[in-house]
């Protein structure tokens, strides 16, 4: 039994989207302001604290409709619109095997249900439309009276507008007063997948839809959370096993977490007796006895903490030294310390307080300990004499941006170990009827790097469909984007795992073909494209034959992309076959016009501009280097084109590679770099030409760069730049970067995020 997926409607940026849940762990990834936080807050407010709903949680695009209803009321009209249609709702779909029917009897859609999906809609509705209308009109009447009675002394334009000026304004702090959260059973037969743009197709409720109890998931889903430090972490009550449970914050000390765990799961505070008080009189004896009790009771916890495998050899071991300082100490509070040296020749161990350890290490231990507590609170609930608490069949643990508490190295350790910790219990074996699902939102490539591609849910920003509309987001399940092409899927997945996952958090992407471009393109951006330098750009170094494989991923992410590739000229030639006869091969040649040449570059042939003849590629106009693909994303492909010979304006040259294009653009600058063997050869070549020697410049320069170590050449150029040498990007790269700069200015959303969702 598990949560299969949820569908969110009218909540902040999530106007209609589906989020599929993995059976174990699901990571929500995406660029800034893409809706990740909206998703986490939606789950919190629907499942834990519906009383916290605010107008800011309603999608901004709905505010105009809500204000229109208020205007109709002020005009004495009954609005044709139903205000409840614009309020947030959440559909929760569970997958429930038939043998678990006893857990879901109260939410069954019909007596004919025989296992599979069960859906429940949680929907905010008005308690009383008449009451809201009455109060709003009274507030508007009072505001207008104040406005009418105001007489400015001098400036007639200084007349103020008195709140509320609209229905949305009136509901700003009052939405929860006028609304209630209701639950309805959904019809499994009407369940359909998202549309072609990823928008959820949520079913229309029938007028006689079955209304469920106010909290249909009580006893079904045990929800615990570790929030980041913003509105998701408001500290309001959550529910664990149907009982209030405070939202867990990363505050306090590890000692405090251990004390809470010990008192609840090892020894209740109610068990303190006269023997404990007598022990205070013999403090050393009591300390020794409790020391053994504490270490024995927490031994399995310490073993789990040791298995974290924190990188480095200097991380201290954790020990527990209990102290009885006064009667207050009889609560058995544990003092956490770190052993900093091993004893030598009967000398005493050396310890430091927990505050002396590194903050990242402390936070990692504390967060793992919180997960242990979540697991134990769920699977070993406390029982009273009068009532036995049933264990919920599903535990959902939500962690918002763990990187807010952890540095890079321990982020990877945490995400690798978190789910294992949540299942490390004798009653949670593979055959256990109890399910654990971990939901993590992150903006860290270190976290996303450590999970499988299929665990990622990408939040994609969508531009407004028309003027006056606000931007929204949809969610992409990355495990499905390659369909049956398993070979390409495996390649892309492995490539990303072997390099970096910042592609999932970027505003745009640049694909390059080699190390030289990888080294120098960032410099070109920094020195020549100031606005672009301020964007979050993912720079991906991959060969021209492989860039094409990223096409389905880029389309799914909707990521504005620039591909910097090579012309790769060749000519078809007949060659003899081993067994006799002839076959046609494409032989690489220097690019030339009117020579019947073709490109061997798969990007140019199959992705864009889908041309093969070199003549057509060289004549392609600037505007046709870019395209909007299926209204999903923008793409620009840059490659070498003809340039004027700097030493002979009458002559046109066609660079073969990035390096010779760079040389053509920077003859004078490169002559000044004395430290590089490659540039010294270039200087010698140009000196010969200046002396009047007849040279075939294209061939000579190509031979120099072809025999050079290209990454070393780029680094030498970069070092020279720091010493004052000015380096200009080749024209084809400059054109591509200019396009990307302008396109991101158009497509990246305003810094003003929707409804307090600045970090999405």
TrEMBL record:
Positions of transmembrane segments: none
Domain Endonuclease GajA/Old nuclease/RecF-like AAA: 1-447
Domain OLD protein-like TOPRIM, chain residue ranges per copy: 504-568
Classification via SUPFAM superfamilies: P-loop containing nucleoside triphosphate hydrolases
Annotated Pfam families: AAA_15, OLD-like_TOPRIM
Renumbered residue ranges of the record's region Disordered: 575-602
PANTHER family in the cross-refs: ATP/GTP PHOSPHATASE (PTHR43581), EXCINUCLEASE ATPASE SUBUNIT (PTHR43581:SF2)
The name this protein goes by in its record: AAA family ATPase
Taxonomy of the source species: Bacteria, Pseudomonadati, Pseudomonadota, Gammaproteobacteria, Oceanospirillales
């Amino acid at each position: 039994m598990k949560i299969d997926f949820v569908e969110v409607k009218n909540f902040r940026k999530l106007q209609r989207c589906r989020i599929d849940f993995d059976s174990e762990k699901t990571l929500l990834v995406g660029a800034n302001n893409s809706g990740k936080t909206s998703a986490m807050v939606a789950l919190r407010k629907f499942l834990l604290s519906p009383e916290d709903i605010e107008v800011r949680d309603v999608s901004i695009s709905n505010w105009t409709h809500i204000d229109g209803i208020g205007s109709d009321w002020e005009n004495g009209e009954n609005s044709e619109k139903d205000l409840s249609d614009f309020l947030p709702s959440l559909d929760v779909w569970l997958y429930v095997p038939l043998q678990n029917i006893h857990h879901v009897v109260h939410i069954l859609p019909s007596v004919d249900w025989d296992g599979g999906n069960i859906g429940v809609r949680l929907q905010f509705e008005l308690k009383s439309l008449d009451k809201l209308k009455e109060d709003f009109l009274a507030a508007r009447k009072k505001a207008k009276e104040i406005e009418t009675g105001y007489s400015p002394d001098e400036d007639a334009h200084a007349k103020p507008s008195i709140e509320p000026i609209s229905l949305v304004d009136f509901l700003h702090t009052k939405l929860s007063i006028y609304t209630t959260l209701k639950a309805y059973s959904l019809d499994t037969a009407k369940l359909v997948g998202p549309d072609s743009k990823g928008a959820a197709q949520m079913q229309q409720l029938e007028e006689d839809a079955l209304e469920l109890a106010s909290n249909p998931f009580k006893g079904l889903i045990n929800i615990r959370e570790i929030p980041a430090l913003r509105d998701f972490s408001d500290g309001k009550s959550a529910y664990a096993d149907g009982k209030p449970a405070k939202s867990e914050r990363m505050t306090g000390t590890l000692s405090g977490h251990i004390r809470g765990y010990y008192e609840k799961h090892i020894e209740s505070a109610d068990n303190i007796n006269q023997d404990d008080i007598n022990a205070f009189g013999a403090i050393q004896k009591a300390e020794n006895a409790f020391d053994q009790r504490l270490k024995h009771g927490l031994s399995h916890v310490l073993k789990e903490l040791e298995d974290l495998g924190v990188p480095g050899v200097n991380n201290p071991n954790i020990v527990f030294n209990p102290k009885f300082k006064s009667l207050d100490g009889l609560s058995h509070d544990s003092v956490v310390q770190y052993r900093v040296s091993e004893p030598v020749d009967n000398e005493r161990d050396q310890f430091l307080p927990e505050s002396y350890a590194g903050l990242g290490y402390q936070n990692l231990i504390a967060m793992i300990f919180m997960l242990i507590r979540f697991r134990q609170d769920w699977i070993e609930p406390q029982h009273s004499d009068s009532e036995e608490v049933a264990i919920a069949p599903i535990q959902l643990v939500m962690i918002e941006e763990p990187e807010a508490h952890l540095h890079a190295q321990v982020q990877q350790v945490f995400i690798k170990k978190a789910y294992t910790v949540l299942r490390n219990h004798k009653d949670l074996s593979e055959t256990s009827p109890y399910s654990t699902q971990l939901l993590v939102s992150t903006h860290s490539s270190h976290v996303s790097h450590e999970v499988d591609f299929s665990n990622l849910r990408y939040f994609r920003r969508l531009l407004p469909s028309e003027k006056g509309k606000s931007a929204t987001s949809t969610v992409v399940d990355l495990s499905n984007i390659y369909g049956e092409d398993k070979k390409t899927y495996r390649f892309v997945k492995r490539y990303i795992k072997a390099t970096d996952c910042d592609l999932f958090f970027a505003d745009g992407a640049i694909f390059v073909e080699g190390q030289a471009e990888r080294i120098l393109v960032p410099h070109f951006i920094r020195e020549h494209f100031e606005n672009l330098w301020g964007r979050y750009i993912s720079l991906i170094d991959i060969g021209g034959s492989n860039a094409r494989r990223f096409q389905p991923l880029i389309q799914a992410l909707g990521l504005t992309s620039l591909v910097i590739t090579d012309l790769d000229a060749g000519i078809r030639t007949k060659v003899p076959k081993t067994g006799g006869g002839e076959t046609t091969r494409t032989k690489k040649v220097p690019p030339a016009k009117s020579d019947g040449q073709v490109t061997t570059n798969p990007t140019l042939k199959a992705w864009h501009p889908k041309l093969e003849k070199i003549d057509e590629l060289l004549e392609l106009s600037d505007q046709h280097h870019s395209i909007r693909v299926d209204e999903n994303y923008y793409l620009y492909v840059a490659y070498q084109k003809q340039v004027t010979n700097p030493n002979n304006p009458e002559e046109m040259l066609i660079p073969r590679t990035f390096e010779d294009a760079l040389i053509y653009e920077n003859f004078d600058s490169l002559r000044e770099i004395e430290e590089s063997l490659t540039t010294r050869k270039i200087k010698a070549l140009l000196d010969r030409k200046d002396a009047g020697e007849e040279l075939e410049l294209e061939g000579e320069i190509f031979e120099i760069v072809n025999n050079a170590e290209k990454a070393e050449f780029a680094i030498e150029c970069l070092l020279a730049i720091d010493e004052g040498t000015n380096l200009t990007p080749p024209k084809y790269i400059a054109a591509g970067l200019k396009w990307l700069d302008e396109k991101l200015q158009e497509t990246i959303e305003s810094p003003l995020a929707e409804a307090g969702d600045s970090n999405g």
